[in-house]
Records
---
Amino acid sequence: MDFQYTEEQQLLADSVERLVEKTYDFESRQKIVRSDAGYSPELWSNLAELGLLSLPFAEDDGGFGAGTTDLIATMQTVGKALLAEPVLSTLVGGRLIANAGSDEQRAALLPSVIDGSTKLAFAYVEVDARYEPAQIAAKATKSADGWTLDGRKIAVQHGPLADKLVVAARSAGNPGDREGLSLFVVDPKAQGVSLKSYRSVDNLRMADVDFQGVKLPADALLGEAGKAWEAIDEALDFATVLLCCEAVGAMKFANETTLEYLKTRKQFGVPIGSFQALQHRMVDMTISAAQSYSICLLATARFDAAARGELDAAERRRIVSGAKVKIGEASRHVGQEAVQLHGGMGMTEELKVSHTFKRLTMICQLFGDVDHHLERFAAAA
């Protein structure tokens, strides 16, 4: 099998990498994450101009009709640079609109997503859900002229940055039921919506969102009421696959900077990289990253095959969960070893490796931790 990137994939990845290297060094990132905005509007606009936000959408919707395989190299750059911009959140929200929305809804919403003028966030996590997306209690009640939304969502990634929220709510059934789930596009500035913004451990913006009697028009509903489970499940697998690719980029940076440190840091008059014990640990880190990249190739290829109808949903879930288990274990290993091999300074705010460790730690938890995906892998098998 040919594991080389196509010319188009490599060109996009190189363009994004050059842009990031030119405008998004570590010091710049530190200023950006501490700013009121929490991201760089200029970089966001440039990423949209390069076509990054149009890749996974169908040509009929104004995109390029690419798959997750076409995003591997680019998402690695996102991970390596620790981008704070809502790339993943917007692509996931856009995927939900593309898969669940009507022709009119896609035409109304996706062009502004593709050109970068609309940032999205997916609000689905609730208290005590423990990674189970069907554990949704937020209620959407049908009214004469639309819907009324009530409930609370927590840990909405990039929620404070979003121009629109894609919200999963229950229009029928009980928490835990896969039937009865619906998707709504909600303006975060609408009456009855309140956001509590905060930073996660990796300094990205998140929000807890309360919905109290929020009045929504009829066309806020994406697709058919109560039939959103398959779209939600598929979009979360899409997000997990891209997150795994991002983790590979972060691990690549962690390995590179740790190796450079071992070559330059001296003890007893010699570089500590000459110590065989540390060489063995560095090799183990390299192996973990290489294995992670390999399983990302598998996961993206199989996910895209499922999107084309060549695999069933159970096999897609099995492969995606297997990848997340391996990525979670490798992220923990590489992140912790990178910090330990740097010594005490590895945890200081002044070194990028400490922030990479924090991001890898968050990646281990996002969209399900290792234990969750082991159970899901077994259930799918």
Note: The longest strand covers residues 205-217.
---
Amino acid sequence: MFDSAVTHQIHTVLHMSSIKPHASGYRAFLCVAGVRESKVFRTKREAAAWASVREAEIRSAAGKSPGEKHTLGEALQKYGEEVSPGKKGKRWELVRLAAFERSLPVTLAIGKVTPALLGQWRDGRLKSVSAGSVIREIALLSHVFETARREWGWISANPLADVRRPPSPDHRSRVITRGEVSALLRAMHYTRGPVRSVTHAVACCVLLALRTGLRAGEICSLPWCLVYADYVTVDGKTGVRDVALTPKARRIVEQMRGFDDALVAGIKTATLDALFRKYRSGAGLSGFTFHDTRHTAATWIAQKIPVLDLCKMFGWSNPAMAMVYYNPSASDISKRLSARPALHQ
């Protein structure tokens, strides 16, 4: 039963809203402060009570700024629905946005999110993940705030602008040795024949990455229609580029022909990553990831072609990236120097 105050509200709202019979009961129509809503209820009393509560909520929100009306969670959801789908890395971005809901106060009004609060969040994240991961999370979250500021008009300033970023970690310099490659291929029972199993496909993906520097996602998304006589065209992290194929790389690609009609690899990136780690551990190896095949490929290929050709092949607009990925050991450089003709004194 409703008390007298609620009964009075119901009586009042009946004059401010419209409640009409419906096949399932009664439909309440509400128009307050430019907001129009309707909902069906079993009884007329329930419809009137809902209208009363919603009117109070709408009138309360009408006097608030956008930063008070919208929560951080709403911003994350809106960004995921409207902005992320247009990005190449949307899959991982949506995963990170969902993870924010577990580590950030998503029910807090976005206008009340402060640099101090975000600084505490950063420090907490640094206790469980690497600095590199936190830097990437901050970059994404900062873009959410910037979009809310520039495009949606929800806030007047980006609270992350005043939050210190963690120091960038040193670039990886891990080069997979030829001995490690051989051990990995043995664990996969690799042969040079046509690919007939997922494990065999993974082994060929590893070899193709070592010969071309292609990323895991680029290999797994490469369609046969973009494979040409001596190069392939990939749509990667830095855009569309042509990647040259050596005779050995072409042989690896041909091994994979017939395994899948549409895609060269015929497996998903997640499968490639999981099986790579499985067989790496099975071979008693550690300390390197699939992405380190790109470092290894850059180190091997850089000895054969000019640096600008290397940048073109790997999709680097800044030649300085070659120094990040080219990681020969001092012993390797010493051996190459020793193999050259002696300089005239």
Note: The first strand starts at residue 18 and ends at 22.
---
Amino acid sequence: MKKVLIIANQFPPMGGSGVQRSVKFVKHLRTFGYEPVVLTREVGNMPLKDETLLKDVPEGVKIYRTKAYELPELKGIMRIPGKVLGKFVIPDTAYFWYKNTRKKALEIIKNEGIDIVYTTSAPYSDHLLGLYIKEKMPNIKWAVDFRDEWTNNPYTLDNPYGSFRTNKEKSMEHSVVTKADMLITNTPVMRENFIRNNHIKGDNFVVIPNGYDVEDFADFDASVKPQNSRLTMVYTGALYGRRKPDNFFKALSELKNEGKIDGSKVLVKLIGNYHKDKLQGQIDSFGLTDSFEIVGYVPHNVCIQHQMAADVLVLIEGSGRGANAFYTGKIFEYMNTNRPVLAVLPEGCAADLVKESKIGIVANTDNVDEIKGIIKEYYDKWCNGTLDFAPDRNVIENFERKKLTEKLAEVFDKM
């Protein structure tokens, strides 16, 4: 069985959505003839932790952990200076981890008999470590996985860096995409963007989207409808940058004020890592205090429980340059819940996937009237006991994690 070194700075028991792609690949790679060996950082002072995700790591998989070297995670009097200084590190705060882990990475490759190196971002410093290994050991095959775009990332486009940092990161990105043996990204549009912006042919660039793990739903019967006393809508995920709930809040508020829905019959649960006071203040300002519950961050398995207990799942993504290129992560788990989705999305990959899989109805992010129309439709159907829908399982099953890991193994086979 060939060995693959999985370089993933973000890995369980670190929590958050970024770790799941890597740990699910690790979970299933043995099935397709590859033994994963993981190189990651110590969790240290990382604020989000989820011990339950370690259950996805098969028995016997070796995990090497090195010191984190993260400025934003410093404690005491250095906490604030660390966060400020971290904003100036190029390409990200994991740069010092990359610098201090280079020697260890080469030792692991030699001692473990590694055949292939796989690096995943964010952070993008993971790929700098892969680039270093490739330069030192040219015969090692190297696969680069972009969970999100790098210099063309929508959140960077919204808050662009100065010319020095922009040019520096573009140079780093170009070195990575031209030196790697194989390249992987999350959506077809992302792939096209990388090819265009880096002036490469893209013959070695494939698309492997995120997905859902059917085993995460083993304890639930998706055919059984929840028996909630209020129409329960659940949103899971972060709210930051352009991903704002304002128009969703506004739509609910207007429907309530117009007497088109009874606010006492609606409950929206927000599940994620939030600044609760700020978010609660925003909810209160829309007059929706009694219709919302901020649950906060929960372990992944508990998050699934909340999804399965919902009548409707809410998906939100902001509009703007580059927003058409990516799927929001929770779309795939939502797919497997058999619960209708209220998708507040811009035109692009995510909206197309919701429509293709028939998991819900799409309202344009910037169109409050469209959002109101879908909320009202779901509300009326729930009140009448007719909140039924028929998702396309043929489409949905293409995003099962084991099938996606098989695609990754095919990338390794090709190398």
Note: The two ends are 15 Å apart (CA to CA).
